[in-house]
Amino acid sequence: PSVNFHAADGSVETIEIEVGDSVMRGARDNMVEGIEADCGGVCACATCHIYIAPDWLERVGPAGADESEMLDCVNDPRPNSRLSCQIAMTDDLEGLTVFLPESQR
Ligand code: FES
């Protein structure tokens, strides 16, 4: 399934992410700029922060408890903030649209 990454400068990159891989892993494998992911995907760094497009929020679902706690420390948290390492790709997420924050810290 493909995911559209909107950078803070307005540019858009669409990449394919395999089912079961996290959105963070797909972004890193494809060199999408703006996702640092220092902890490698174990919900411990919060540098994989993204914003989910409002019309995708329901399908993506809410953050888990650990993730919500980490989201308290990101730059400019919003109600549609998620950590991209905690979103596993599914066929249902084909066309998912996310926005990258201006910076991860
Ligand atoms: Fe560290 Fe997501 S990669 S919290």
UniProtKB/TrEMBL annotation:
Key word Iron present: yes
Transmembrane segments: none
Known cofactor(s): [2Fe-2S] cluster
Keywords noted in UniProt: 2Fe-2S, Iron, Iron-sulfur, Metal-binding
Residues annotated as domain 2Fe-2S ferredoxin-type: 1-104
Domain of life of the organism encoding this protein: Bacteria
Record keyword Iron present: yes
GO molecular function, one term: 2 iron, 2 sulfur cluster binding
GO biological process, one term: P450-containing electron transport chain
Entry-linked Gene3D superfamilies: 3.10.20.30
PROSITE patterns: 2FE2S_FER_2
InterPro entries linked: 2Fe-2S_ferredoxin-like_sf (IPR036010), 2Fe-2S_ferredoxin-type (IPR001041), Adrenodoxin-like (IPR001055), Beta-grasp_dom_sf (IPR012675)
Record PANTHER family: FERREDOXIN-2, MITOCHONDRIAL (PTHR23426:SF65), FERREDOXIN/ADRENODOXIN (PTHR23426)
Family to which this protein belongs: Belongs to the adrenodoxin/putidaredoxin family.
Protein name: 2Fe-2S ferredoxin-type domain-containing protein
Organism: Sphingopyxis macrogoltabida
